[in-house]
Amino acid sequence: xxxxxxxxxxxxxxxxxxxxxxxxxxxxxxxxxxxxxxxxxxxxxxxxxxxxxxxxxxxxxxxxxxxxxxxxxxxxxxxxxxxxxxxxxxxxxxxxxxxxxxxxxxxxxxxxxxxxxxxxxxxxxxxxxxxxxxxxxxxxxxxxxxxxxxxxxxxxxxxxxxxxxxxxxxxxxxxxxxxxxxxxxxxxxxxxxxxxxxxxxxxxxxxxxxxxxxxxxxxxxxxxxxxxxxxxxxxxxxxxxxxxxxxxxxxxxxxxxxxxxxxxxxxxxxxxxxxxxxxxxxxxxxxxxxxxxxxxxxxxxxxxxxxxxxxxxxxxxxxxxxxxxxxxxxx
Length: 331
Fold this sequence. Notes:
The protein is α/β, with parallel strands linked by helices. The chain has helices spanning 13-23, 39-42, 52-56, 72-81, 97-100, 123-129, 165-188, 222-231, 310-316, and strands at 3-7, 27-31, 62-64, 85-89, 106-111, 134-141, 151-158, 238-243, 250-262, 274-276, 282-286, 293-302, 308-309, 324-326.
């Protein structure tokens, strides 16, 4: 059986390597995104790592890097590989009906969620944001609908208390690689490969995350903000602006937050106001008016500075009355 891989970046790389290890020269082609400048400049961890093309160059398989697989040129490159099975992982483009007709046995996708939850481009981040105890990987048959195909395999993975999107995606990529090989072997055995239909009543969405999505909304509850900080790592990172009397707003990246405290002066504090915590930590008033949470900031990075602990931050930016976090322009 001739297998082609379609994917980009650190989530896809383990699957590609596992397929090569399991099927050798039967892996005949790779379709991956064109080379970009850097992962940080591109704004996605999918552009970092070993590099899919670099992995492919150690094999005899064809490599195609079209701007869009759905163009006539992209289709021609895929057809030249003559795949029986197409395995997709984090490719980053919706596949047209024409693309899906190319592999003779069909197309499967390695999706980093327990479908039908979190269909879309950012399932790992939304699982953390949603406060899920578990997520996982689902291998599905690819159809023209977004992540809506029948499920061939599914396996759960615990979300650890300190997991960021980056750390959780790394563990899911290893799980996905093993499951992709298992699914490909089902196809290689011949005969029909059956799947289970997704329950439409349980569908939730995980749309693409944009750079501006990282702005912290301090009116959210403290537990949500702590999850938000983890979900936005490694990109786009959670950020806010520090407002100090008589000074211009300064952009600050939040790296780590946690430890929730009742607000002693809740009714007087402005949302986003910085508070001295016992022991010298940084507290921030957050949450809707009915909750009045205080969240403790553990690690942060002012614009143009290195990442620092709360204690280090307070040495350079001691808390004064009226000091607060918020959007660049306060309401």
